[in-house]
Amino acid sequence: MRNQFFSKGKKLSVGDPMTDALWDSCLSQKFQILSAYQWTPISVIERTWKYLSLDRVTSLVDLGSGVGKFCIHLSLLSNHSIDILGLEDREELVDVSESLKKHWDVSKVQFRKENFLKQFPEGHSHYYCFNPLYETMKGSHSIDLQKQKSANQFLKDLQTLKQNLLLLKPKTKLITFHGFGGNSLTGFRIVLKEEIAGGEYLIWERE
Ligand SMILES: C[S@@+](CC[C@H](N)C(=O)[O-])C[C@H]1O[C@@H](n2cnc3c(N)ncnc32)[C@H](O)[C@@H]1O
């Protein structure tokens, strides 16, 4: 059952350009429909690798890794040169990520079913997030109905995330696409700001 959706997906030959449509063709229909709203576009992952390849990166964590698109494609672009960890609190998405990890053969990527607000992963050189907290505020394009919509919960979660980020070591980088939930981040300075694929792309450095 698990590999059914791979019958639609194709493996690439060396040199073929990757596109969102091609990557997403490995997903079931329900997750393909969500892609434009929930999974990082290929152009953003390519921009991230362009930045990381010139930065000192030892390991990267995706806070809320979804179907694993960012982690898996970044690992391929890096030619498996960095350790990448994806944390996701929805079991179904972790299962999809594990299947795609096998499909793309990316051994340096690990996925864990974890709530990063409860168990924050310390000690990595780089962190990435694509607005994972916003779903408690959002009315449409939700992944499922598991999470309660609540402005109060959103504010509490944002506070927890900010407190955890403040504990990171100086020089640690946080990369955000469509933000992390807030406007300001105490203890961080912005080192890069761009508009990519219709979204704000920022890199923050812990001071
Ligand atoms: C907008 S999606 C981004 C997915 C992935 N990072 C990507 O770029 O393709 C945000 C993801 O964060 C997950 N998420 C939200 N809050 C979380 C939490 N506290 N712990 C773990 N995962 C969380 C959601 O389930 C969702 O899959």
* Count of discrete structural domains: 1
Broad CATH class: Alpha Beta
Approximate shape: globular
What portion of residues is helical? 25-40%
- The CATH homologous superfamily is called Vaccinia Virus protein VP39
**Number of helical segments?**
6
* Major beta-sheet overview: 7 strands, mixed
Radius of gyration: 16 Å
- Counting DSSP E segments of at least 2 residues, the number of strands comes to 7
The proportion of residues in beta strands is: 15-25%
Low-confidence stretches: 1-9
CATH topology heading: Rossmann fold
User: Strands of the largest sheet, in order across it?
Assistant: 3-2-1-4-5-7-6
Which distinct ligands sit in these coordinates? S-adenosylmethionine
